[in-house]
Amino acid sequence: MIRSQRADGYRIVTIDRPDRRNALTPAGLTQLKAAIDDAQEPVIYLRGAGSAFCAGADLDVVSKLTDPHAFAEHGQRVANTIEQAESVVIAGIDGPARGGGVELALACDIRIGTPTATFAEPGVKFGLFGAWGGTVRLPRILGEGDALDFALSGRTIDADEALRIGLVSRLTDTPETVAASIAENKSDALSVLKTRLRDHGPTATQANAEAAAFEQLVNKYAPEIAADRS
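RESULT FIELD:
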């Protein structure tokens, strides 16, 4: 269900179940977590196979769950693995992202959509909601007002609206080129920037850590910086 392959300086992780719009089962979640954990490249490009990004949890599985709490925690662990990965994780969203698919995208560092990307949290229409960390990340990324509108309505939004409210950061026909471009940068600088930008600790602690990280990179790359200026 999950394919992982190395590209030129980055890792491509594909949710590969196009006949089910890449809906995830517990086994698929386990495979996805392993693929993220195992990646050694500085950038991971997460995509879906076929005409969808990810339809979220497989509803045939959800309808037969004997332990829904454990299933929610399983999805949360996968989303946390994506968010906390040392690599920069970029979601390339081409076609529909629904429910848990939106939640996995929210856990990524950057979300790039194509003009055909669409997004929805449709579970509310039949008595469910995304429980893979979406209720935490959605208002943090969109702001409370847009998050409530998106989640409570269950409506589908198109790529242009997703860009307007900040669900994606840009639109392009070829999202993978963004991953390739970012992968050309220094890997340790990418890692430091991700850590610093994801740090929600006290301001004073963040400032000290920022200065320390800057010092480390300057000491490492000073000759290269000087050569570039000459």
